[in-house]
């Protein structure tokens, strides 16, 4: 995320990137934008988009559209994502070697007119887009930006990527947000990792705890993403959030033991595995995804209808289906007002906004 602030005639530029994709940049972008909008004239864009959606004949990044609308901004949608990165455009640009940075700067100049702050979401990791000259580091340098990293907590080696980023960005790196930290790891982060980063002159501005509700997807979202067909189940069930997933590729006895230990789950299994489907229906299951475009037998369908459990038919095989679900959960799925308000409270409690704004001279 890039954030530009005008103060006393001087532009402050903040780039929020990450050491890994799917670290929470879009949500961070939205929450910080909401906070800034309370005190500054704000514009928002995403210089490099990767989720194209056609609107009025133009391809616009899906997250950029949503965030702009949620913020209540009235900008020309053609300015929201000047560069759309797809496989086709990547190959074309690699061949033509055309620089995309001037297009990003031109869009920013239009958006920044009459504004105090322009927020721009980054994409992927800091190195994403390096072959096209539009990596996070390229964009930050071109815009003479200050950099804030959103670093996804994975394990104790999280500091490695942050320290490497510091070596590349030097004094341009003003701080780090460590995101999605498991409850049993928060003490380690605060007592060990933060002091070790401090010794490298790296400031941690926030430690955001993991929140399973924010990361959950609804059954409707799963069905849409998988191009699935709901064979049975109520509309109310479709709005329920799913936090747990299980792949049914074992014997029925093993499945029963495993399923009983995992509540509120979606089971992913072949459409011809009626034994696994029946085992799932005997335990706390929210939905069953049937892969391979294979319809369930009459017993499974009848029992699922009776229980009101959605059966979702998809054409892809089990492995591909699991990969698609992983991709879905990695995207920004915090789209409901309730979940965004929950995220605002989480960030307000765990991100040092006053220190961030002080570093930006706001």
Automatic annotation (TrEMBL):
Pfam families: AAA_26, DRTGG
Domain DRTGG: 221-327
Domain of life: Bacteria
Protein name: AAA domain-containing protein
């Amino acid at each position: 995320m890039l954030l530009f602030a005008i103060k006393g005639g001087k532009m402050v530029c903040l780039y929020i990137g990450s050491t890994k994709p799917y670290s929470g940049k879009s949500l961070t972008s939205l929450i910080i934008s909401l906070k800034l909008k309370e005190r500054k004239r704000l514009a928002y864009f995403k210089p490099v988009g990767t989720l194209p959606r056609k609107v009025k004949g133009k391809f616009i990044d899906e997250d950029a559209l949503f965030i702009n609308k949620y913020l209540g901004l009235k900008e020309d949608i053609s300015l929201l994502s000047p560069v759309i990165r797809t496989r086709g455009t990547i190959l074309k640009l690699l061949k033509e070697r055309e620089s995309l940075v001037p297009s990003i700067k031109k869009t920013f100049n239009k958006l920044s007119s009459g504004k105090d702050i322009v927020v721009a979401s980054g994409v992927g990791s800091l190195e994403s887009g390096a072959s096209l000259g539009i990596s996070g580091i390229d964009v930050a340098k071109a815009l003479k930006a200050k950099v804030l990293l959103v670093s996804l907590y994975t394990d104790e080696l999280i500091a490695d990527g942050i320290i490497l980023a510091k070596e590349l960005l030097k004094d341009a790196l003003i701080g780090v947000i460590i995101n999605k930290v498991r409850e049993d790891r928060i003490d380690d982060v605060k007592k060990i990792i933060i002091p070790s980063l401090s010794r490298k002159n790296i400031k941690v501005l926030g430690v955001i705890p993991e929140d399973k509700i924010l990361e959950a997807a609804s059954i409707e979202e799963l069905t849409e993403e998988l191009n699935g067909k709901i064979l049975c189940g109520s509309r109310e069930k479709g709005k329920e959030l799913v936090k747990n997933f299980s792949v049914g590729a074992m014997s029925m006895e093993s499945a029963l033991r495993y399923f009983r230990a995992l509540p509120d789950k979606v089971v992913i299994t072949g459409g011809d595995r009626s034994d696994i489907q029946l085992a799932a229906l005997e335990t706390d299951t929210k939905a069953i995804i049937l892969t391979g475009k294979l319809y369930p037998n009459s017993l499974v369908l009848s029992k699922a209808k009776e229980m009101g459990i959605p059966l979702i038919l998809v054409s892809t095989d089990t492995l591909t289906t699991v990969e698609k679900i992983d991709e879905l959960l990695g995207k920004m799925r915090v789209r409901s007002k309730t979940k965004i308000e929950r995220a605002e409270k989480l960030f307000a409690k765990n991100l040092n906004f006053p220190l961030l704004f002080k570093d930006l001279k706001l």
